[in-house]
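This is your field. Have a critical look at both lines of this record:
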Amino acid sequence: MPVQIFNDPPALEVFYDAIIMPTCRLQNRSTPLEMYGGVFDKNKNFIDSSALVRGDIHQIMASGEVSKRPKHLDENVLYGGFLYRKHHEHTGCYGHFLVESLARMWAGLSHFLFDRLVFNSHPGVKEACEIGNFFFEKLGWPKEKILIVNEPLRFSRITIPAAAITIGGTKASKVQSFVYNAIAEKIIGKKDIELLGDAPVYISRTKFSERPVFGEINLEDHLKDSGWEIFHPEIESIENQIRTARKSRVYAGVIGSGMHNLIFSRPGTRVFYIERNPNQRTTYNTLAALDAIVGLDGSYIPANLEAASPIGPFLIDQNFIIDEFYKRGYLNNKAVFDLSLARNEYIEFSRK
């Protein structure tokens, strides 16, 4: 189903004497619901707009009950939804943070209207990670104004903005681009055209330790010899990752967290997503929504050969990718590599 992009901002609700319950995990799962938690009105009824949703309707965190007498805080707060942490024991989901933990921050651009920014998160999490604090600070939220709920709390006033985008959803709002632009402009400035160069950029996964992709090394060598820049995001600072996302008109890379930083690119940027597992349709919906919101010109290269599991390892056809770039005018010459070496490495890693 095509993704619908709306110019109008999502709904925004205000509740008085509302309660935020901390997150707790479900022991027995028979639905997509994984966790209880979220916001309840003064009559202790769950507020649906506070749920964490995947796709268009599947609630991941929602419902539950107000089980204790909440502590009261006389504050006017903004509800930020669910906060993901990179390198937390439960998840290393940088992409989930950029999409889901920033999905309500369109309302947070007016940070001066609120006393604090309040989140649910995984049980026991007490603060955002370094990367989270970095992004929130760029949006005007220092870490001392961010609260992660670990006990029932009643607030005098809670503003709940609806998420402008959901992972796997078919609807999104253009206002989400304001969040990404605000972050990029805070780092680079509004006059960033001097960053723009002519070299295409390949975003590599060869230095990632998780979800390895086999078949990239020869591809990278050939692209580099042909004038491409090879970029390894996991060894670069966040600031440099965002600067790199603004320095070219053309990017390519295997679908994964490294490609998520292209949400900070300028409109009209050409992006080639190299497929590693085309069965994950939620990923494609999310990328389509982000492309439309930011204004990226995205397309897909079906170079996937095998995937040992949904989280890897993965094997891609480097020759197919080189041929595609050559046909599209991004390479002056072709090369043909023996795929058996990458396949043998993939098989050996899969066995382990």
Summary: Residues 4-174 form one domain. The two ends are 38 Å apart (CA to CA).
